[in-house]
Amino acid sequence: MKAQANGLEGVIAAHTALSDVQGEAGQLVIAGASVEALGSFEETVARLWRAAGLSVDELPRRLGAARVAMAAQLDPRALASENGMEALRACVAQLSETDELDTAIRLVAASSVATAAWYCRQRGATMSAPDPGASHAADLLRLMLGDSDARRAAALDRYLVTVIDHGMNASTFTARVVASTGSDAVSAVVAAIGALKGPLHGGAPGPVLDMLDAIAAPQNAVSWIEQELAAGRRIMGMGHRIYRTRDPRAAVLERAIVELGGDERRLRLAKAVESAARGVLREKYPDRGLDTNVEFYTAVLLDAIGIDRRAFSPIFACGRTAGWVAHVAEQRRTGKLIRPQSVYVGRSVE
Ligand code: COA
Asked: Which residue ranges have their beta carbon within 6 Å of ligand 1?
């Protein structure tokens, strides 16, 4: 048997109609549409689920009703952890599978309602009741922050859409492995939340904000970055396993920040830091194609919306849950168990 590289880099684990990450070209296609051209969260969920074989009518109404039902059944004990991903994992784990589509809808509703309820609890606020007639993003924003601003809701909607799915990333692969055993979608999503909780997957936006705070002014950017690299540290929000050019999601989120308006000085600082990081990294690693990834502008956008960095990973999960359940449905239809092999490097039989 031929040994594969550690980390399964370059190994194909599935054929999917859900998303295509083109690393050299810097393009992302979600079920036939480029990431720049996607519609609202509800439209994109429906697009993704149809591609996965989940026929879905009246999604906004059903998702709204599911948010209301989830808020009514939240168990306060599951929200107790100070870590949002632990709270999310505990809340989602309390669900049971019904039919495939109903479970998918309840999982998407549950991740958002649980995130909002946990966030309110952390801030000592009382979460209001979900509005089943609101868009998913607008309702999530109002539940989290008590904020009904349409521009911030549109920005949050763009964020949820932009991170909805992304090829065979670690949490999606995890969800597919669980689904491939014939287990239920709730278990698959709980496992995926566990994978997303790790700092190597989706954990960079908080440190990106720390970096912006530390640099403080555009003229400090180049020297700060050079010092970080000289100290052997990585620049957060830069580099990607697949993209060899700028992550296309960075451009979508940057546009969303501009459309949101707000703190122009912060955006100017972010752009100066990005440009300094790209320049310094290009000089240091001319052949590696290290460039801006999605997490750089995720940090700036979520911060501009008014969401605290503690909630960045759970809110990523709110968007990505729709992708996970699509992959679960698609994997189930293959009927194939995912079961790789390992190379034994232990002691020989004595
Ligand atoms: N800053 C500085 N150097 C970086 C870097 C970064 N952000 N990303 C990669 N490199 C360097 C590595 O140090 C390594 O150099 P070396 O061979 O001299 O040790 C080289 O580029 C290749 O890195 P590697 O770890 O093999 O790349 P990967 O594909 O496994 O890692 C990431 C991809 C995303 C983990 C990596 O780019 C990273 O740590 N980025 C910062 C964290 C981040 O933004 N994560 C969010 C990703 S969406």
From this structure: 204, 234-241, 285, 288, 290, 293-295
> In this structure, which amino acid lies at residue 276?
A
- Residues carrying an active site annotation: 240, 295
Cα gap 273→224, rounded to integer Å: 9
Give the tokens for residue 99: 């039919």
* In the predicted structure, residue 4 carries a pLDDT above the cut 90: no
Instruction: Give mean pLDDT, residues 37-60.
Output: 96
Dist. CA 241–CA 21, nearest whole Å = 11
Torsion over CA: 102, 104, 105, 106 (sign): positive
Where does the pLDDT of residue 262 fall: very low under 50, low under 70, confident under 90, or very high at 90 and above?
confident
Where on the phi/psi map is residue 184: left (φ > 0), alpha (ψ -120 to 50), or beta?
A: beta
- φ, ψ of residue 311 in degrees (nearest 5): -95, 0
For the CA of 7, the closest atom of ligand 1 is 30
- Gyration radius (Cα) of the chain, Å: 20
Please give the distance, rounded to the nearest whole angstrom, from the Cα atom of residue 200 to the centre of ligand 1.
10
Q: What one-character-per-residue DSSP string does 147-183 give? A: ---HHHHHHHHHHHHHTS-BTB-HHHHHHHHHHHTT-
Q: pLDDT value at position 38?
A: 98
By the 8 A CB rule, do 156 and 148 touch? no
pLDDT digits (tens, 9 = 90+) for 176-193: 999 999 999 999 999 999
Query: Residue with the nearest Cα to atom 3 of ligand 1?
Result: 234
Write phi, then psi, for 21 (nearest 5 degrees). -100, 110
Distance 293 CA to ligand 1 centre (A): 11
Cβ-based neighbour number of residue 259 at 10 Å: 11
Give the nearest ligand 1 atom to 296 CA: 44
pLDDT digits (tens, 9 = 90+) for 192-236: 999 999 888 878 888 999 999 999 999 999 999 999 999 999 999
